[in-house]
Amino acid sequence: DAYRPDPSRLFDLQSSRREGRTDVTVGLEVADTLGLEAGGWFPTVAGGAGLGEAMRRFGGGLLVLPGSVRRPSLAERIRGMTPDRLAGLGVALVISD
Prior knowledge:
It is a single chain. The chain is mostly helical and 97 residues long. It has helices at 13-18, 22-33, 47-58, 74-78, 83-87; strands spanning 62-65, 92-95. Strands 1-2 form a two-stranded parallel ribbon. The longest helix is centred in the N-terminal third of the chain and has 12 residues, at 22-33. It starts with 12 loop residues before the first helix and ends with a strand. 12% of the residues are buried.
């Protein structure tokens, strides 16, 4: 699919809407409103390791996470999706509510 995002680049707000990524779409809309450059990414590695890869690959300086990260499931804890593990990525974290 020529329109489907790939791991070598960030996807934009329109792609997020087209792919049905509601949470990502809201985040990208807020970033746009604030005048921030933001994008989504389809990771090749799951969990915190995938987020870390994205931050390094695209030079990210701020990671915005949903409030659910405060109460991670067992699977999320295994994948490294806890606030303390994500803080180890070396970028600023914002946890939304």
